[in-house]
Specification:
By secondary structure, this protein is an alpha+beta fold. Helix content is 31%, strand content 21%.
Length: 790
């Protein structure tokens, strides 16, 4: 299916073209000061792999340059995202389905109606007005820079968007909308169809008794929308002076994000002389570094376990499903009509109207598979803590200027990070872990006091949903005067650890930061002791092993990550092979033979890795499959093995192996095929061999699919996972950083930077990032592009 958001931006050649096209204009403007007498010029220098080094004298000009550079590489993708922001996907692209955030596919009509229903431009304008002058300048500059690029290059845009009526200038309101979608992606955006599906019950439906909820199905429903076992993940390790070879801090950042869409990373180096000098990556249309480093400190993020919203179970008035009770008093729901232009059966556009219902707690949302429906007695409202979160760029500005991990932690105080942990290391050899993200201020006592009906309460353990009693006003989120945002947990009650050995996170909670690190008094909404990611177990096993070989170096960190050990294979394959003499079928015996010769690593030359993946994809879901069940006292070592001595379990294990062998052969691959011949990128037809493994395998270098799918004739096609991977330390001069942006800078197929770094990733070749001025000059490619902001 044609998806405009996956098309790639302009090639590096356009840098020279743009410079030529605007030379006369720039020559006339270069000496003209801005209205306030400031220099509004911005310089874009490109180095190896097309990385832009952008220098300006003020934030607005800097963002102007970021937008121009990003459009050179990704203009069609940005133009496509603006269609989403305008709520015009259906009228532009028809009835296709596309990922709202590049990870979940829903019809365009639902996206358009969600944008109409959720976006409140007046509210967003008020929220942005409360941000710093610098953040507001960054937003203005980005809008102007993108529009300047369109004006300069309208005739030379890539084929995917040249001359298309949907390629239009950006407005500030649309820019705010794009930022809002990113903020709420772990909340209301993931349940967009549930928001649209919340309508008053018909008379017969209202009288029908509620059906029992299958908790396993409820969990799967949340998994399907990315709110349970989210496909967005990461690894990050930070090492302190006690364990590093140079006595300085060291950092590994390994985010696992989609390879297309607005969550795609973009490398850049941003400088305002005397004020800011920072390098790393930003997301999409974000004109600041999200993950990166400056001369004193390096940081990365991992998706945290914190809850970003709560449901409220509201009790409805007798005979009126649009009136609910709070402390026994009736309150009328609000109804707001929204509309979108949707193609009809004949292809002609027609106005589709929709009513959105809301309570004091937020909009009504239904999740039928989880039992959250609207009937005659109850309904469910969702309150998203990230709605209107415009604080992200102010936090990023403070990160960029930090001089230590303590400074970095202070930058968390505005509660601007929407859904991530931070791990960092600094020049002095300090390491930090912190989860200071947006979390509703609800503690364990309030959870008990404000428990909803029993079926809704059971959803927290089964599906990760927190439902509170909406019939009591005192079940509102706590408003701590220490919090800059009423209703959110302030920085002083969120988990933080400063250490001089190491800290770690792979998307399980703060509990697993370090075996010797203890936290107390943290809300259950931030996280608990559950361990759901095999990568967490892998990291907690592999870091001590690496340290056992001596002091840590960047090369040791890189090697550990790219060893591609398959943790779950190490845990279960020995028991499987020990039972292979009892394999009941030719297929299971062949599967055993393939696994026997495998080194249990997911390198491109590994033979048998794809057999284990297809086997474990199914076998992991067999009830009681492990010989040693999970033991909370041994979270890294358990669960372990396969319960092959149990005949019923063994039969299902053999069935899973049979199925894997048959699926591989049906797809046209052999059991002894190399992983690199089977595992390839989905975003290009270039046959680039990829190393790494799926989330459920516990391979730290995590690669997979946004829409999970077993092997087929196309192989194992990858479109998310290891995206920007960086290692950073410090010497006497400043940062020493190496990185790979796995998919490259550009989404334009003709660009030399569309897949160039993917080839480097395939070969495990890291490149050194030029941060210091003399290194940038040495690595420069082509002539600098100089622009002047009007």
């Amino acid at each position: 299916m044609h998806e405009p958001s996956t098309h790639r931006g302009l090639s590096m050649a356009l840098t020279t073209l743009a410079a030529a096209c605007t030379a006369l204009f720039l020559a006339g403007c270069a000496s003209q000061p801005g209205a306030a007498g400031t220099d509004r010029s911005v310089t874009i220098e490109r180095t190896t792999y097309g990385i832009p080094h952008i220098t300006a004298n003020d934030p607005e000009s800097l963002a102007y340059g970021v937008a121009y550079a990003y459009a050179q590489d990704n203009v069609c993708m940005t133009a496509d995202q603006l269609v989403t922001a305008r709520g015009q996907r259906s009228s532009t692209f028809g009835a296709q389905t596309i990922g709202l955030l590049g990870r979940r596919y829903i019809p365009n009509a639902q996206i358009d109606l969600f944008m109409a229903a959720h976006m409140d431009d007046a509210m967003l304008e008020r929220a942005w007005a409360k941000t710093s002058a610098e953040t507001q300048a960054l937003a203005r500059g980005y809008v102007a820079g993108y529009n300047r690029f369109l004006a300069d290059n309208a005739a030379t845009l890539p084929d995917a968007c040249r001359g298309k009526p949907w390629v239009q200038p950006m407005t500030l309101a649309q820019y705010r909308r794009m930022a809002e979608v990113v903020a709420v992606q772990a909340g209301i955006a993931a349940l967009a169809d549930g928001m649209l599906g919340a309508q008053p019950p018909a008379a017969k439906a209202a009288q029908a008794p509620a059906s029992a909820v299958n908790l396993a199905d409820a969990a799967q429903a949340l998994r399907d929308v990315g709110l349970l076992d989210s496909p967005l993940g990461s690894n990050a390790w930070a090492f302190g002076k006690d364990v590093t070879a140079n006595g300085s801090g060291m950092l590994l950042g390994n985010p696992h994000f989609p390879w297309s869409g607005p969550n795609r990373f973009y490398e850049m180096h941003l400088t305002i002389p005397g004020q800011m000098d920072v390098m790393g990556v930003g997301i999409g249309t974000y004109p600041m570094v999200s993950i990166g480093f400056n001369k004193d400190v390096a940081w990365s993020h991992t998706v945290s376990t914190g809850k970003r919203f709560t449901f409220y179970e509201v009790t409805l008035a007798e005979g009126d499903p649009t009136t609910y009770l709070v402390d026994g008093k009736p309150e009328k729901m609000t109804a707001r009509k929204v509309n979108a232009q949707i193609p009809g059966p004949d292809g002609k556009l027609q106005t589709q109207e929709h009513t959105v219902w809301s309570t004091r707690w937020g909009p009504l949302v239904v999740v039928p598979r989880a039992g959250l429906t609207w009937n005659a007695k109850t309904a469910y409202a969702l309150r998203d803590a990230n709605t209107g979160n415009t604080r992200m760029m102010d936090a990023a500005l403070a990160f960029a200027r930090a001089r230590s991990v303590q400074d970095l932690h202070k930058a968390h105080a505005n509660l601007g990070l929407p859904w991530v942990n931070t791990l960092a290391a600094d020049r002095s050899g300090q390491a930090m872990y912190a989860d200071v993200s947006v979390v509703p201020d609800v503690d364990a006592a309030q959870l008990a006091r404000c428990a909803p009906s029993q079926p809704a309460a059971a959803l927290r353990a089964a599906a990760g949903l927190v439902v509170l009693n909406g019939s009591r006003a005192d079940c509102d989120w706590r408003r701590d005067s220490a919090s800059p945002v009423p209703g959110l947990i302030p920085i002083g009650r969120m988990p933080v650890a400063f250490r001089t050995d190491w800290v770690h996170n792979s998307n399980d909670s703060f509990v697993y930061t370090h075996p010797g690190q203890k936290f107390e008094g943290i809300s259950p909404l931030v996280g608990d002791a559950s361990l759901t990611r095999p990568r967490t177990r892998a990291g907690l096993a592999e870091i001590p092993e690496m340290l056992g070989r001596g002091k840590v170096t960047l090369q040791a960190i890189q090697g550990q990550l790219f060893e591609n050990r398959n943790f779950m294979a190490q845990v279960v394959v020995p028991d499987l092979l020990a039972a292979c003499d009892k394999a009941p079928t030719a297929e299971s015996r062949d599967g055993c033979a393939a696994l026997k010769g495998w080194d249990r690593r997911n390198n491109v030359d590994a033979r048998g890795a794809h057999v284990f993946r297809e086997f474990w994809r199914t076998a992991r879901n067999i009830p009681g499959v492990h010989r040693v069940p999970f033991d909370a006292q041994q979270p890294v070592a358990t669960p372990a093995g396969l319960k092959m001595e149990d005949a019923a379990t063994a039969a299902k294990v053999w069935e899973a192996l049979d199925g894997a062998v048959k699926a591989i052969r049906t797809s046209g691959y052999t059991l002894d095929a190399t992983l690199g011949s089977v595992q390839r990128p989905a975003i290009t037809e270039e046959a680039i061999a990829l190393h790494g493994g799926e989330e459920f395998e516990g391979v730290l270098n995590n690669l997979g699919r946004q829409e999970p799918a077993p092997i087929n004739k196309a192989g194992l096609r990858i479109d998310y996972g290891t995206s920007y991977v960086q290692t950073v330390t410090f010497d006497a001069k400043g940062p020493v950083a190496q990185a790979i942006l796995t998919y490259g800078q550009s989404t334009h197929p003709a660009s030399p930077h569309a897949n160039d770094q993917m080839r480097e990733f395939s070969a495990k070749r890291w490149h050194t990032l030029p941060f210091h001025r003399d290194d940038v000059v040495k690595a420069s490619v082509g002539e600098p592009l100089r622009l002047v902001r009007p």
